[in-house]
Fold this sequence. Notes:
- The structure is a single chain.
- This protein has a 5-stranded parallel sheet with strand order 1-2-3-4-5.
- The chain has helices at residues 2-10, 25-30, 45-63, 85-97, 127-134, 150-158, 169-173, 177-182, and strands at 16-20, 69-74, 102-106, 141-143, 164-165.
- 38% of the residues lie in helices and 11% in strands.
- It has 195 residues and is an alpha/beta fold.
- The relative contact order is 0.12.
- The longest helix has 19 residues, at 45-63.
- Helix 4 (85-97) crosses helix 5.
- It has 8 helices and 5 strands.
Amino acid sequence: xxxxxxxxxxxxxxxxxxxxxxxxxxxxxxxxxxxxxxxxxxxxxxxxxxxxxxxxxxxxxxxxxxxxxxxxxxxxxxxxxxxxxxxxxxxxxxxxxxxxxxxxxxxxxxxxxxxxxxxxxxxxxxxxxxxxxxxxxxxxxxxxxxxxxxxxxxxxxxxxxxxxxxxxxxxxxxxxxxxxxxxxxxxxxxxxxxx
Length: 195
């Protein structure tokens, strides 16, 4: 992770995002469901969070504090025995104290039976998870998952659920979505159908 951040900075990127969500490696350390370790990286909440916090600290040590580090967290794993929003709030606070520059909040793991990005999830359906974290930290919070409409994005920000929104598939469907919205050409947007 640290070497990748160094390469990103050398290549001219403005910052990095560490993926601590969706059931990937860092999420497996964070979760009491998957982390069965008995060393300093397992057991207590602090120990399970140690791996991610060390990554954030070490990136800043190696590339400088002027290089933003965003951390993507599951606001709720939606896995029985996994982390819930209160755990994510506590972790976000700890990450803020240890140098994270922003938190990007997603919902669930890929293994979850609860939909993450498909049409079964209402537009902006996990913004409430970001809102829980935003109330607890001063760094910017980004809402993710199934935000494919500029009106919904504005609503999430206007309601104070997040400072920014993350769009992925919506920009695959129409890379010009932000420009079209900015220019008042919403009817020309090619909408992601959340398939």
